[in-house]
C-alpha cells in the first residue's frame, strides 16, 4: 500500500500536505545509536523551502520532534517515530485544482484513484511535502552509515540545461553543495544555474534538473540476487520521489552507445585492494557492490505548477479551459530534490548494509 | 532474499545456468484462465539464443514444462510452476573465470558475496539464463493483461549507436519487431543495427542498446502512493534484469532540459475521454496511471564477456593478468533483452492491475 | 522488523509506554469512508484502565487524535495516522526492574535483545500500552467490516478459573459484554469472575483468562492457500498481543480427543444456503472461510507483575534476590485483552476481505 | 498469495497432489553449507505414508531431487530448489468429491474460492501432499540449526485420547519417536495409541492428536517486537499445516487457570547462566527467546476423509445426500504431522536465528 519501504531497515511515512504534519516510523534502528538530532534538523533545513529566491517563498519551520524510540539520547531498539508539524498553509490557493487538474500534476490521477475524497490541497498525501518524511527517515540511515564509514553525497549535476563542466571532486562536493542555493558543487556552474532558475521564475516557468549521488567507502560484496539487486532497491526508492522520471547508474544510458571494450571496467590492484580503472558500472556489478563508489543520477522534471496559462479539462463540465496556477511553488523541484535523493539513497543502503551496521555494537 | 517479486501477482524464480534447468512459480494467477502454452513457448523462442548470427551460437531448446497449476488446460488457482531444462552446456569454457574475474561481469562480486561456493559456470543463479524464468512468468502475466485488453510491446530503440530514425507506429512494432533479428520495428534502421553487431562480433567486441517498451490500453487511476508508485515497481523489476544500467519513463532524462511549459502534458478531451496532448510523463503521473500509454526505456550495457584481451586480477595470486574470454556469448545482450523487458513489464502491471484482472471472471 | 502487519489493509504501530504517546498508521483504508471517531474513542475507552477495581488504577485519558488521512470526515485514501498521548506516568516505580527482571515479564528478554538501551519503564515499546495502538487500527477495520455487514464480537470465556456455564447467545454478547467490568456476557458468571479477580488482587496475585471471539456474517470463500490461511493470519496477529500463550479455532485442542465422525461438520441446506450442523472448524476449512461464524479462543496468562514477593536474579551482581513489584498493574490482563482481541481480529479480517470492502464504493 | 513464508530464510512451496510433483524453493540459505541429502531423504521417509497400518496404504517413493542451488555438495548461495515426484496416484477415487464435498474437508471451501477450476483430486494444491514440500524446506532449516547447535524435536503428545503419562526426557524423544509407528516417545503409551488408531480404522473412523515440539539449545535474546514475535511467526507457520486447529506455547491454555504466583517463571542462576525454575512461557517472553527450551503444542483434528457414511450437500442439485469417502486415507493425520511440525518449526527458527547462522561461516 505504499507507505512502507525496506526489509530490515524499514521506513514508513505518514501525514499529508495540509494536515497536522508529516512524519515517519523507522523500524530496525539498532539499539544504542546516539542519534544526532541537530544533524537531522540540519538535513530538514536543507530541504526546507523559503531559503532563497530559487525555491518557494513558503515558510515551514520543520522542527524535528521525536515521538518515540529515543531514550537518554540513544535509540532504544523500538520504532523511532519522527514528526514535523505543518505550518504556513494557504489552502485558499488550491480552490480550483480540485476540478481543473494542473497539467503533469497528480491532481488528475489522484482524482481518478481516490475519487472525490482526495484532499487535493497541496497534493495531499502524495505531495512533495511527503519528502520531508523521507528526509527524516533517510537522515537516520545516513547517520548509521556514517558510523560504519560510508558517506552519501548528492549534488546538482545539471539544472535548467546547465551541466557541470567536469567531474567534481569529493572535496568540492562536501564543501560547496549545501552552501550553494542550487546545490551545485562547482561555483562557476552554480552561477549559470541560478541565472536559468531566475529567468524561468521571471517568465512564469520552471526548469528540470539532474541530481547525482556519490556514495563513498561502500564495502564490496553486499546485495541480494535477482529481484533485490542493489540497483533495484535504489531505483525503487528513487522513483517514489515526486517528479523523478529517470534513474541511471555509472555510465547509465550512455553505456548503450559504448562497446564492451570501452564499457568494461578492468580490474587492477591498488594498495592490496582490487579496484577498477573505470567505474562505468557505478559501483554495482551483478546487483552486488564491487567496492567502487556507487554513482547514480536522477532526472527531475520541471515543477508542474507554473504560473503560465495552460490548457486543461474541467472535470465537472468536461470542457477544455485555461488554468493559471496560483500558490508559491519552487521553480525547480530538483533543488530540494538533492537532499531527498541523498537521504533516500541512505535509507536503501542502510537496508543493504544492515548486517554490517548491526554487527557494529554501540 | 531476491527470488520473489510482486504482491498479488507474485513471481518466484529458481534454477541456475549449469544446473538442471530454470523455472518459476507464479502465485496469484486467478483460477480458470486458459493459459496458452504455445504462446508461452513462442515467448521462450523469442528469448532463445542460436537464432541468428546476432545472438550466441548456443542451442537451448527451452521447451516449456508445466510442473503444477494447470488442470484441463486452465489455471486452478494454485501456484503455477513452469520449468525449462538446461541443455548444451559447455562448462569447460568457464574453467578460468572462477579466479580470473571477467571485467564488468558478476564473477567478481559473486565471488565476494558467496565466497568460494558460487557456481561461476555460466554465471550460476545470477546468470542471464535466469531471464528465461522471467520470460516464463512474465509471459503468463502478458496473457492475463491481454485478456483485459492491455498490450505490452517492447522493441529495440537503439543498438550499437544506431537510433530509430523516428517514432515507430504500433502497427510497425507489432508487425516487425520479432521478425527482425535485432528486434527493430523499422526495417531501415534494422539493417544498420545488424551491421554494427556484426562488426562488433568480428572485432571480438560487443555493443550496448536501449530497449523501449510501449504499453497500450492502460486503464487510468491504477497505482499505489509513495513507495509503490507504478514507476517504482517497474524500475525495481527492470533493474533486476542483468546488464541494465538505466531506466526512464516518458521524456526521461531529456525532461531535465525542458521547461515546465514544454514538459507539462496539457489535457484535452477526445471522444469523451480525457487525454494529454503530449506524453512526457510516459503514462504515469504522481505514480498513478493516467490512461495514456506507458512508455519506458531501458539501457543495456554491452555484453561484458568479449573475446578481446582484457586486464583483470588473478584472485589467487592478486597479480594483474590478461584474460581472453572463451565461450559463446551474445555480442549484444540488449537483443535478447527485448522479450525480457516486455515480459517483466507485464509481470509488474499484472500486479498493479490485479483488481481489474481478478474481477473479470472466466 | 515487527511494527507492521497486513498486506492490503496494513497496520503500523509506533510509540512506547513512557514516551510522548502511541499511535498507528493505517494503510489501505479505501477513500471516502466516513470514519466514526466517537466509536473509535469508545473502543479506546473499553481498553482504558482505571475503570473499575478489576483493572489498574492508572488513569489514561486516551483521547484519539487524527494526524492524517481524514478530510471532511472521510478517509482520503492516504495513510490514516491515529495517536493517543501518554498521561499519568509514574516512572519512579520502575527504577528496579532495569536490573532485577520481573519473572515472566519482558524485562529480561528485552534487556538481552536491546542490551542496555531498552527503556524498561513500563515495558517500553513492548509494553501492554502498545495494545492501545492495536485497538486504534483494529477499530478502523471493525468499522469497515461493519460496513459490509461483518460483526466482530469478543468476550470473556473464562477468567480466574471460572468458565462460562453455557454458550452465550449473540444477543447476550452484544448487550452485556462491555457493560460488565470483566467483559463477561453472562451475568451469573460475571459475578463469580469478579470475585476471583478481587480475591487475587487482595492476595497480591493475578489471574489468567480465555477470551473468545465470534465473527458473524462472514462471507464464504475468502482466504489464501497454504501460508496465508485465515487461521495463520489471525494467529499471527493474536500472538503479537502481550500475554497470549494459546490460540485455537472451533473445537480447538478439544478436537484432538474427538473421532472424525464426531468432529466432522456435516453439510445441510438452510434457506437455500449451505451450512454445517456443527462448527468444530470454527468457520474455516482448508484455510478458507466456509460461511459459518468464525470462532476462536485466546489464552492470556495472569499478569506477570504481581506484588507478591518473587525470586529473580540481579543482572548486575548475578545473585538471586527477591523482588516486590510496585506500580499499578491489572490483576488480569485478559480483561483489557477483550477489546484488543476483538480489534486485532478485525484488522486481519479487513485484510482477508479486502476485495469485498474495496468493491463496495462509498 | 500464500506460497511463500519467511523474510531472510524464505520458503516457497509449489506443486499439487495429482500433478507432476511437489517441491520448494529455499531462499537465503547461506553459501557453502554441506547439505546432507541422505538426512533430508530420511525426513521425507518419516513423512511418507505406507509405512505401517497406522498410516495410509498409498506408496510414494518421494525421492528428493535437487533442481538448483547445490554445487559440489554445498549450497551455492542461490535459490535451493528441491522436488519430489508424485507417484501411485489413483484419481478415480475422487470422482465424487468434486460436487459432493466431504464434511470438514477443503473440498467445499476450495470450490467456493477457486470456482469450478480447482483440481479437487487429492486436495490439489491445498492437499496434505503439500506438507512434503514443507518437510523438504524445513529439513534444510533443521540442518542449518543443527550446525549452530539448536535441536528441534517433535513427538506425539496425545493420540486418540491417549496422553503421554509423563514428560518424556530428551533422550527418550530422540531414541524412540521415529521408531514408533505413532511417533510416541514413551513405549507404554505408544501401545495404547496404536490400539486406538487401529480401532478407529476398523470402525471406518479416524482420531485426532496433539503434537508437541521441543527446541533445545535456543540462544536467548532473539525475536522481533510486536507483530514479529517468535510466537507469531511460529503460529503463522503451524496454522498453515492442514488439519491444525490449535497452537499453544509453554503452559498454553492451562495458563488461563493459573495465578500469577503459579504461572510466573522465577529466575535463578545455574552454572553462571540465568535460567527459570519453571517454563510456563515455553522459552519465549515478550516475543523474544529467553534461553529456555521452546515448548509448543499443535492440535490436529481427526482425518476428515473417513469411510463411515456422512451427510453432505450435492453442489449441483443442492440436495442433501450421503457420502461414503473412498480412497486410502490416514486414520490419524497427526502421525504424519509430527515431522511436518518439527520441520516447519525449524523453518521459522532458521529465519529468527538467521543472523547467528549467517555469521557462522563455513
Automatic annotation (TrEMBL), chains A, B, C, D:
Official protein name in the record: Chorismate synthase
Chain positions recorded as NADP(+) binding sites: 47
Pathway participation: Metabolic intermediate biosynthesis; chorismate biosynthesis; chorismate from D-erythrose 4-phosphate and phosphoenolpyruvate: step 7/7
GO terms classed as biological process: amino acid biosynthetic process; aromatic amino acid family biosynthetic process; chorismate biosynthetic process
InterPro entries found in the cross-reference section: Chorismate_synth (IPR000453), Chorismate_synth_AroC_sf (IPR035904), Chorismate_synthase_CS (IPR020541)
CDD domains given in the database record: Chorismate_synthase
Described function: This reaction introduces a second double bond into the aromatic ring system.
Lineage, highest ranks first: Archaea, Candidatus Marsarchaeota, Candidatus Marsarchaeota group 2
Annotated FMN binding sites: 286, 301-305, 328
Record HAMAP family: Chorismate_synth
Organism of origin: Candidatus Marsarchaeota G2 archaeon OSP_D
Enzyme kind, highest EC tier: lyase
Family the UniProt entry places it in: Belongs to the chorismate synthase family.
Cofactor(s) this protein requires: FMNH2
Reactions the enzyme catalyzes: 5-O-(1-carboxyvinyl)-3-phosphoshikimate = chorismate + phosphate
Gene, per the UniProt record: aroC
Cofactor note: Reduced FMN (FMNH(2)).
Keyword annotations from UniProtKB, A to Z: Amino-acid biosynthesis, Aromatic amino acid biosynthesis, FAD, Flavoprotein, FMN, Lyase, NADP
Amino acid at each position: 500500500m505504499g507507505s512502507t519501504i525496506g526489509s530490515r531497515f524499514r521506513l514508513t511515512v505518514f501525514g499529508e500536505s495540509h494536515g497536522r504534519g508529516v512524519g515517519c516510523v523507522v523500524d530496525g534502528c539498532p539499539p544504542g545509536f546516539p542519534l544526532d538530532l541537530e544533524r537531522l534538523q540540519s538535513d530538514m533545513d536543507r530541504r526546507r523551502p523559503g531559503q532563497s529566491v530559487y525555491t518557494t517563498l513558503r515558510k515551514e519551520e520543520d522542527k524535528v520532534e521525536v515521538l518515540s524510540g529515543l531514550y537518554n539520547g540513544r535509540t532504544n531498539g523500538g520504532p523511532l517515530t519522527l514528526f514535523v508539524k505543518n505550518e504556513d498553509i494557504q489552502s485558499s490557493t488550491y480552490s480550483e485544482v480540485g476540478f481543473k487538474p494542473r497539467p503533469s500534476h497528480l491532481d488528475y490521477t489522484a482524482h481518478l484513484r481516490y475519487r472525490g475524497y482526495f484532499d487535493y490541497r497541496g497534493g495531499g498525501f502524495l505531495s512533495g511535502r511527503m519528502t520531508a518524511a523521507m528526509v527524516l527517515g533517510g537522515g537516520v540511515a545516513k547517520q548509521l552509515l556514517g558510523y560504519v564509514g560510508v558517506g552519501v553525497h548528492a549534488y546538482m549535476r545539471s539544472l535548467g540545461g546547465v551541466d557541470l563542466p567536469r567531474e567534481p571532486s569529493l572535496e568540492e562536493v562536501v564543501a560547496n553543495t549545501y552552501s550553494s542555493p542550487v546545490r551545485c558543487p562547482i561555483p562557476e556552474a552554480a552561477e549559470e544555474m541560478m541565472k536559468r532558475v531566475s529567468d524561468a521564475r521571471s517568465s512564469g516557468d520552471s526548469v528540470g534538473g539532474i541530481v547525482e549521488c556519490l556514495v563513498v567507502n561502500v564495502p564490496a560484496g553486499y546485495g541480494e540476487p535477482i529481484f533485490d539487486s542493489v540497483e533495484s532497491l535504489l531505483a525503487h526508492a528513487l522513483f517514489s520521489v515526486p517528479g523523478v522520471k529517470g534513474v541511471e547508474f555509472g555510465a547509465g544510458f550512455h553505456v548503450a552507445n559504448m562497446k564492451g571494450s570501452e564499457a568494461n571496467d578492468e580490474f587492477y590492484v591498488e594498495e592490496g585492494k582490487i579496484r577498477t580503472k573505470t567505474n562505468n558500472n557505478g559501483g554495482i556489478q551483478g546487483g552486488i557492490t564491487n567496492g567502487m563508489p556507487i554513482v547514480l543520477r536522477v532526472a527531475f522534471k520541471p515543477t508542474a505548477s507554473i504560473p503560465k496559462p495552460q490548457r486543461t479539462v474541467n472535470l465537472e463540465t468536461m470542457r477544455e479551459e485555461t488554468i493559471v496556477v496560483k500558490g508559491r511553488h519552487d521553480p525547480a523541484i530538483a533543488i530540494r530534490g538533492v537532499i531527498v535523493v541523498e537521504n533516500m539513497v541512505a535509507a536503501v543502503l542502510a537496508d543493504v548494509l544492515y548486517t554490517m551496521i548491526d554487527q557494529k555494537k554501540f
